[in-house]
TrEMBL record:
This is CopG family transcriptional regulator. SUPFAM superfamilies: Ribbon-helix-helix (SSF47598). It holds the Pfam family RHH_8. InterPro entries: Arc_rbn_hlx_hlx, RHH_8, Ribbon_hlx_hlx. PANTHER family: BLL4998 PROTEIN (PTHR36215). It comes from the Bacteria. GO terms for biological process: regulation of DNA-templated transcription.
Length: 144
């Protein structure tokens, strides 16, 4: 069965730490000027620091809604990793996965497109999905 979300440690490294996802946003000149002013005055280290702080504050404001939706939609919150052994175990048990993740879902490099198709019924990821390109292509019709 797939491992539950966990934090990698030196004793239990797990998959490599995910790289932050890059977002692009468009801001008006006035908003950007105000951000630059706050950075210049030392409130924030840089533009990214202010934007991350603003996003985290908004997420904290809505944390109860996020928690309720995670529970209602039975989403795994955090990082969920699937190896070929995990998916083979699912098949051996005569089951198929309905993957639902809020955060990061990773499918290991040792997973073949055939194994993914045989063991994964559907996949919903709110966040990021890291998987071999061939596996992503094979699962494209099952991504929601």
């Amino acid at each position: 069965m797939p491992r539950k979300s966990r934090i990698a440690t030196a004793a239990n490294p797990g998959p490599a730490r995910p790289v932050d996802e890059k977002l692009s946003i468009n801001l008006g000149c006035v908003d950007l000027g105000q951000i630059d002013l706050l950075v210049q005055e030392g409130f924030y280290a840089n533009r990214t620091d202010l934007i991350r702080t603003a996003i985290r504050n908004q997420l904290a404001t809505h944390q109860d809604v996020v928690r309720q939706v995670v529970e209602r939609k039975t989403l795994v919150l955090g990082i969920q990793h699937y190896s070929a052994a995990d998916l083979a175990a699912v098949l051996d048990a005569g089951e198929r996965l309905q993957i639902r993740v809020l955060g990061l879902a990773t499918i290991a490099a040792d997973v073949t497109p055939e194994l993914a198709l045989a063991s994964i019924e559907s996949i919903t990821v709110l966040g990021a999905l890291h998987a071999p390109a061939a596996v992503k292509a094979a699962l494209a019709a099952r991504l929601r």
